[in-house]
Write a structure and sequence with these properties.
heterodimer; A: alpha+beta; Ubiquitin-like (UB roll); FAD/NAD(P)-binding domain; 5 domains; 7-stranded mixed sheet; B: alpha+beta; Folate-binding fold; 4-stranded antiparallel sheet; two-stranded antiparallel ribbon
Chain lengths: 1002, 99
């Protein structure tokens, strides 16, 4: 039995002791303990160091809003299973759990970073903005590295998380968030009415407040017996699901709620293959929010000393975990609830030194109960300081009479239990943009206008006491069932020994010392003090949103669950305005920190996104191809032979194709069939080119613009029949082009009789290029003559190739004699293998996308998206010839006359040849006219494509340059990283075979 | 995540199935060559950007593939109604009366 464990109290399993470590020291707790409760049972309050000042900090709550006790945990299995910033109040212990404190060096008890605490006056509000302003050059070299080193809590994991995370959808009638008395009452009501109910709670067991209030009785039963009965009844109902360790982390449109269910973080032995967490996407017809209220700290000098914690937390540690947080506590409060914590502590054997209340009067019943237990009471008192650094040893208190702070005396103690009132927990309600209204009497924000089908019950509406919570939960359940069109019976509950109470909200406590020197913390996690907030107001921050950002109050991972109301109260006092005029900051999802794993779910590794593969992909893999991703496709990039790097492989592939024969998998090209009686008219309107006179069996380069006149896509288009076009698009553009065509067809020209069909994956496309292309292909072709006369360049026919039905194009993206053979996808690999076998006579060479890029660049063929960037017109790209000038209209035509499009000095696509033929420019490099000009230089364009051309024995490049067409033969300069500039001459973009003779192989 | 009613499928389905497609009821001029530069500029780029009820186009891209129109309140992010392409924008009074 550890020193602070109380016999006969709590719900932990005394039969099952559990050993775990904290900072390499082994501690013992029981099954059912959290790390926080087990450490407290061992007398340890100090659990971390603060963010900015590295002040020693102890645990202050017993729940998920904990700002201080953030620890690193290492889950079973070790490697990759480290998690920083886990709340010690939520992490259950299990055998073998390893935990560590954060933000300390060399040790938690002696931390050198605490020097910041002595430099307190330097680290005031707006410190980053003021300190790191000047000089500019210090930002990168001094300030940012300093901030990066000093900032952040804990350390980020460095290894891949080996666990996996599940996700599911869930539909229900009523989702109840929170399983305190109001949530349970709502679930019982809706469940009994037959609704499909889901009840969730972030804790390991349900009950909420009831777990901390065992002395209450409901319907003649002690609270815990009643709770057990209620759980059993819910479990008997097939229409009710209960989920523990499940956090409703976000409330989204139309009653969609994200739930994160922790499945294994409490287990010593994790079942093989079990997911660690599961994200539920719930669509609920009705939602009941029964999230309770959060206890507020009190703001006074030294209020963050370890050993000072929320009174309600002490009550929870005692009643739920059987742990006394101190043996000689002082209670400091402005609310009745803390008096009951004091009584529970006293009844469990603690010597409660005193109850200090800031109010002038409290009920006689409370005073009588305190007297009966021999507890001293101090009314109308303030707290002005503490003794002890690693653990509180005394509280300094003073009387307040007529607004004057009297002389101090010390109350020696080992813990201070504080309660500055309770804040209704309305985070999820805020996610829905539901409005909050200020309740002047209770000095809290309560739910106002609702935007969703949601009901709020219990302490979330500012109600207090178990009886009120049960009644209100029942009402929420009834209302939800009524909204669903049903009727629910209204249960009533007899509650005895309920502990109702009231309290007040206040700014920082008055002091007899200099308020400017007080370290009176408002936000523990971000180390924001009352002085910081007042300074922010003095420096001109008028809105709470500005105060928040200037001081960082409420911006830590706890989103100000403890600090927002105290911050608001102090800011409104400093501004001399009422709280509702100062406003409240907005809560956003997630409610508590959520793992990336839970969001990613199954979408990781190979499942991150689909990989599209062509029918010929497996051949490429067997033949040693290197691959590159193009849109979602994986494409063969190059085919290295033994000892070859990419440069050598590509040079060989280019040479083989130009000299004899190359084979290329072009199956990824987008393909769309445009068919119907009005197909020609549709094509005339969509593409820049004229299509009316294109004969059946002929193909044409097609150019697609956006309505604003810029190039969107291109591709060769074949006319198969009068009413059928085989349109090809860029690999990445297929879906966009089809969407654009559908848009115009459906919404602008619904009268046209045209059908659009995506056929990208119907066809395997094999490109044969090189002087021997016809020789290898001819023996396989049946049904047509593919001689140069019968089947000239830019022809297309249906025929059979190797017995497979085919659409055969004679086209070239390399400048060599070229064919593209389309066969049904299922025959693609077989045809490839046949051509490969036959091609051995001509030293056939498979090539990948890199060689394709080089060969097309040698011919000056553009790649949309590489040589164009969404601001390039056909004229800019030098392909004005593709525009059907006689057509009355096509998409983008009117824009080609826009003033900006016809303005001089637009960027135009030109070729660049470096003076040194061996220098290959960097794609994306900027271009200047005069490399000697002062910096910043005027940049007149950039390199879009750049390669080593094996055929030409030199480098080649394309670039967009201002007024490029008028700069032919000029020398421009491309500055490099190392400070010099590469001179290059402006040329035509056609570097190889400008006359096109090589297409005309007989 | 929003739920959107596709007027062609006559079904209310998750936002994931749909793609936004800009403001509705902007007809492409029958003969753009007749437009002045200013008129063409307005057609291309000028949008109402309303705070409140916005008529906009959506496509049931991962479903039936049809483009349709919707009235959505840009403040509350609520869909008031959806209707087929080509149909006139419903007026608010009719909508409110139907509620």
């Amino acid at each position: 039995m550890t020193e602070y464990r109380v016999e006969g109290r709590g719900r932990v399993n005394r039969a099952k002791p559990v050993k775990f470590t904290f900072d390499d020291k082994t501690y013992e707790g029981f099954e059912g303990d959290t790390v926080a409760s087990a450490l407290l049972a061992n007398g340890e309050h100090l659990m971390g160091r603060s963010f900015k000042y590295h002040r020693p900090r102890g645990v202050v709550t017993a729940s998920s809003e904990e700002p201080n006790a953030l620890i690193g945990t290492t889950r079973g299995g070790g490697k990759g299973r480290f998690e920083p910033n886990t709340r010690a109040t939520m992490q259950e212990i299990y055998a073998g759990l390893k935990t560590e404190s954060q933000n300390k060096w060399p040790s938690l008890k002696f931390d050198l970073g605490a020097i910041n605490d002595r430099l307190y006056m330097l680290f005031s509000a707006g410190f980053y903005y003021k300190t790191f302003m000047w000089p500019r050059s210090f930002w990168d070299s001094v300030y940012e590295p300093f901030i990066r080193k000093a900032a952040g809590l804990g350390k980020a994991p460095t290894e891949v998380d080996p666990d996996h995370y599940a996700s599911r959808y869930l539909h229900c009638d009523v989702l109840v968030v929170g399983s305190g008395p109001s949530g349970i009452a709502a679930a019982l009501t809706a469940g009994r009415a037959g609704s499909k109910v889901v009840l969730v709670d972030e804790n390991s067991e349900m009950g909420g407040t009831l777990l901390s209030e065992p002395s209450v009785s409901i319907d003649g039963q002690p609270a815990w017996e009643w709770l057990e009965g209620a759980m059993a009844e819910l479990d008997r109902m097939p229409n009710v699901t209960r989920m523990t360790r499940t956090t409703a982390m976000g409330y989204y449109h139309q009653n969609m709620i994200g739930l994160v269910q922790k499945l294994t973080d409490h287990m010593a032995d994790v079942p093989e293959g079990a997911p660690r967490e599961r994200m539920w996407r719930v669509r609920a017809k009705e939602v009941v929010l029964a999230q309770g209220a959060i206890e507020r700290p009190m703001v006074f000098d030294g209020n963050d000393t370890p050993g000072i914690m929320m009174a309600g937390a002490a009550q929870t540690f005692l009643n739920r975990f059987g742990v006394l947080v101190g043996k000689k506590p002082v209670v400091l409060t402005s609310h009745d609830s803390a008096w009951y914590s004091a009584f529970d502590m006293a009844d469990a054997g603690a010597k409660v030194v005193a109850i200090v209340d800031t109010r002038e009067t409290v009920s006689q019943a409370l005073l009588d109960e305190a007297n009966a237990r021999g507890i001293k009471t101090y009314l109308s008192y303030t707290a002005t300081g503490t003794k002890g650094r690693l653990r509180v040893s005394a509280l300094r208190v003073n009387p307040v009479r007529n607004g004057k702070v009297g002389s101090a005396h010390l109350l020696f103690c080992d813990a201070v239990l504080v309660c500055g009132g309770w804040t209704p927990s309305l985070h999820l309600f805020s996610h829905t943009k539901g409005s909050l209204h200020w309740d002047e009497e209770a000095k809290v924000y309560l739910p106002g206008h609702k935007t969703e089908d949601v009901h709020i019950a219990g302490a979330g509406r500012g109600l207090w006491g178990i009886a009120a919570a049960l009644e209100d939960g029942t009402k929420a359940g009834t209302d939800a069932v009524k909204s669903l069109g049903g009727n629910a019976g209204v249960a009533t509950y007899e509650v005895a020994d309920d502990r109702t109470g009231t309290g007040i909200t206040q700014k920082e406590l008055p002091t007899d010392r200099s308020a400017g020197k007080a370290k009176a913390f408002v936000d523990f996690q971000n180390d924001v003090t009352a002085k910081d907030i007042r300074l922010a107001v003095r420096e001109g921050m008028k809105s709470i949103e500005h105060v928040k950002r200037y001081t960082t109050n409420g911006m830590a991972t706890d989103q100000g669950k403890l600090s927002n109301m105290n911050g608001l109260t102090i800011a409104s006092d400093a501004l001399g305005k009422e709280a509702p005029q100062v406003g409240l900051t907005t809560f956003r999802p997630p409610y508590t920190p959520t793992t990336f794993g839970a969001f990613a779910g199954y979408h990781k590794g190979k499942h991150f996104e689909v990989t599209r593969k062509t029918p010929i992909d497996s051949w490429a893999e067997e033949h040693g191809a290197e691959f590159e991703p193009v849109a979602l496709w994986r494409r063969a990039w190059y085919f290295p032979m033994a000892g070859e790097d990419m440069h050598k492989a590509v040079a060989r592939e280019c040479k083989a194709t130009r000299e004899s024969l190359g084979i290329f998998d072009a199956s990824t090209l987008g393909k769309i069939e445009v068919s119907g009686p009005d197909a020609t008219e549709f094509m005339n309107r969509m593409y820049t080119n004229p299509w009316t006179k294109l004969g059946v069996g002929r193909a044409r380069y097609g150019l697609l613009l956006g309505e604003e006149g810029f190039i969107r896509d291109d591709g060769v288009i074949g006319r198969m029949r009068d009413d059928l076009f085989h349109v090809t698009t860029t690999t990445g553009g297929a879906a966009r082009v089809l969407n654009m065509m559908e848009d115009y067809l459906q919404t602008e020209w619904p009268d046209l009789k045209v059908w659009l069909t995506s056929t990208t994956e119907e066809w395997a496309t094999i490109a044969l290029n090189g002087p021997n292309a016809r020789k290898v292909l001819a023996p396989f072709v049946e049904g047509i003559d593919i001689s140069d006369e019968a089947f000239p360049h830019m022809s297309v026919r249906e025929c059979t190739v190797a017995g497979f039905p085919s659409r055969l194009f004679r086209i070239s993206f390399t400048g060599e004699l070229g064919f593209e053979i389309n066969v049904p996808a299922r025959h693609g690999k077989e045809l490839w293998e046949k051509l490969w076998a036959e091609g051995q006579k001509y030293d056939i060479c498979p090539y990948g996308t890199e060689t394709m890029h080089v060969l097309r660049a040698e011919k000056g063929f553009i790649i949309v998206g590489q040589d164009t960037d969404g601001t390039v017109t056909p004229q800019d790209a030098g392909i004005g010839w593709a525009i059907g000038k006689k057509k009355p209209d096509f998409v983008g035509k009117r824009s080609l006359d826009r003033p900006d499009i016809v303005a001089p000095n637009r960027k135009q696509l030109v070729g660049l040849l470096t003076e040194d033929p061996k220098t290959v420019l960097t794609e994306g490099a900027q271009i200047v006219a005069d490399p000697k000009q002062a910096k910043p230089m005027k940049m007149i364009g950039h390199v879009t494509s750049s390669y080593w051309s094996e055929s030409l024995g030199r480098s080649i490049a394309m670039a967009v340059v201002e007024g490029g067409f008028d700069r032919m033969d000029d020398t421009l300069h491309i500055p490099t990283e190392n400070g010099d500039a590469v001179p290059a001459k402006v040329t035509s973009t056609v570097f190889y075979d400008p006359a096109g003779d090589r297409l005309k192989v007989e | 995540m929003l739920l959107i009613h596709c007027p062609y499928c006559d079904d209310t389905l998750p936002e994931l199935e749909f793609a936004y497609a800009g403001e509705a009821h902007i007809d492409r001029p029958a003969d753009p060559s007749k437009l002045t530069d200013e008129e063409w500029r307005d057609f291309l780029f000028i949008r109402t950007n309303v705070k409140g009820v916005h008529a906009e186009r959506w496509r049931h891209i991962n479903g039936c593939g049809r483009f349709f129109n919707a009235l959505r309140d840009t403040v509350s992010d609520r869909f008031l109604t959806t209707y087929k392409a080509g149909e006139a924008r419903p007026d608010m009074q009719t909508l409110e009366a139907a509620e």
